[in-house]
Amino acid sequence: MDIIEKIARKSYENNIRFTGDNERTSINNVKLELYDFENQLDKIKFLNIHIDLINEEYQKHLKICKNLENCGENERAETLIFYLKQELINLGIQINDDAFTYDEKINKDSQLEEILNQFNELKAGQQAIYDDVLNEIQELKELYFLGKKKWHQLLAGKIIEMTAGGIISETISKDLLSAIKPSLRNLLN
After folding, report:
1. How far is CA 33 from CA 14, 68, 93, 189, in A?
2. How far apart are CA 159 and CA 177, in angstroms?
3. What is the pTM of this model?
């Protein structure tokens, strides 16, 4: 876990999860912490981690919620996500229908872990190559905010780049591309 994720998780616990504050106060506290970051990508990651953590709790709650229309917890989660997305828009991130849902992020994380598992056999004899692939996959997990089309293009590009650079064989790259083939069909849409 990198430092931005640690800070974001602590911020989530302090400002959103275990607080009795209203949504505006919680968001204002998160925004105050956001000013500590100089790097634009760190700010985006910080906000996205908050959104993901809220969504995770929200999805759990929805499964047991008895009053979907008038539930205060649902309204709080939706309001918090709305304001956090507004902050992303202020940072120049375009929020659109192309965005990954919480479940889609979980699914993609699972696919990326499967790719890593395929590289586990490389780990024994070629640690440097395995580490390169691991770093690339970790980076992809942090870039869901790009939207589905751009993210999938980046994934395909990384696979092609690793193949051209000799990091992975053509056979492995074909296996990887076929594993994500359903997603790649939509790249030109």
Report:
1. 11, 32, 19, 38
2. 8
3. 0.66
